[in-house]
Amino acid sequence: xxxxxxxxxxxxxxALVFVGAGAVAVGTGGLVGVxxxxxxxxxVIVAALGSASGAHVNPAVTLAVWIRNEITARMAVxxxxxxxxxxxxxxFLLRFVLGGIxxxxxxxxxxxVSQTQGVVIEAVLTFLLATAVxxxxxRKTLGExxxxxIGLTLAAAILMGGPLTGASLNPARTLGPxxxxxxxxxxxxxxxxxxxxxxxAALLDxxxxx
Length: 210
Description:
Layout: H1 3-26, H2 30-53, H3 59-67, H4 73-97, H5 115-138, H6 146-165, H7 171-181, H8 187-209
Helix pairs in contact: 1-2, 1-4, 1-7, 2-6, 3-4, 3-5, 3-8, 4-7, 5-6, 5-8, 7-8
């Protein structure tokens, strides 16, 4: 198995969580600042690492790509492992540089919504993100604009869903801070929602390509 894509996925997921969750933990700029931090760093990651691994940096995106037969099952599992490891490394580094877990380390938590509502929100927003990846990064429908479109999609999703669920859209993004803080409350919401959204995105892509 080629190690280069795995290194890229580890590094990319590390960067996404360190900057994105870090922005939440620091709190500068409020919701708009958090959305911009996530969107901008994802744009950079996709542009810089896309040629090496596809820059999924998200187990849900990898799931959608695997469902569409654009990656083997073995490589998908390897991606999931290194994505989670990258997220955990970033979260534990945040715990060190921020002096503990008092900031929450950017953990994604439910706001004024139920678990069921949280699953629906995460599913819809992940559907939008995974669709952006499938249609731009995989299908190359927008050429060089793909990274920007993907980054803007994540930023827009956070502006809508941030106050409700934290707008994770990414099991690794949730698992990293959860492991560093020891708080796994409502974890299933952030696994089920993105998985459902990824499946719907793959279905839409299949419908458009058949």
